[in-house]
Amino acid sequence: MAKVTVWEMKKHLPAVVVGSSLGALVALQAERTVPLAPLVLIAPALGFGRRWVESLPPGDAISFFHHGEERELPVHRRFFEEMARADPDREAPAAPVTVVMGRRDESVPFDLVEETWSRWEASGRLHAGSRFIGIADGDHGLAAHVDLIADAIAEAGGAARES
């Protein structure tokens, strides 16, 4: 997925790259290859593979809730195993990044995302203008906060045009 994203980024030169949940991990990985645009990561599924691979039920495929489809979908065990080996959040992105995260996220631990942000800040490698937006009553879908997310995307795009 990250390879396709990199190809699309090179082809279209976006003002902002936005990803939600697993899409945020794809955006982070793609940015490592082609840091062309600011990132907006919505409810990034950090530690996804590591958190799930050990607790998976036996068998293949595994039924998993897809928030976009609002239903259970089959996912192959290999996907979780490969995600457990991925580490797109190991270092702060080279591009400016905005993280939007709900404190009541039922899929991704808020503390894990906040700890990753703190690690990025402590490294001194977090790009100027980057920011973390914690939403007190936000869940994983953040559907009640689309205006805030739209504003964050517009601001990231505006900052990109100014630089």
Tally the helices: 6
What would you call the quaternary organization?
Answer: single chain
* Protein structure class: alpha/beta
Q: Spans with pLDDT under 50 lasting ≥5 residues?
A: none
Q: What is the string of helix and strand elements?
A: HEHEHEEHEHEH
Radius of gyration: 16 Å
Q: Which range best describes the helical content: under 10%, 10-25%, 25-40%, 40-55%, 55-70% or over 70%?
A: 40-55%
CATH superfamily of the largest domain: Alpha/Beta hydrolase fold, catalytic domain
Count of strand segments: 6
Strand content: 15-25%
Can you tell me the CATH architecture of the largest domain? 3-Layer(aba) Sandwich
CATH class of the largest domain: Alpha Beta
Detailed description of the structure:
- Helix content is 42%, strand content 18%.
- By secondary structure, it is an alpha/beta fold.
- It has 2 domains: 2-46 and 89-162, Alpha/Beta hydrolase fold, catalytic domain (Rossmann fold); 48-86, no CATH class.
- Strands 1-2-5-6 form a 4-stranded parallel beta sheet, sandwiched between helices.
List the helices and strands and how they pair.
Elements: H1 2-12, E1 17-20, H2 22-33, E2 39-42, H3 48-53, E3 62-66, E4 71-75, H4 77-85, E5 97-102, H5 110-123, E6 131-135, H6 146-162
Parallel strand pairs: 1-2, 2-5, 5-6
Antiparallel strand pairs: 3-4
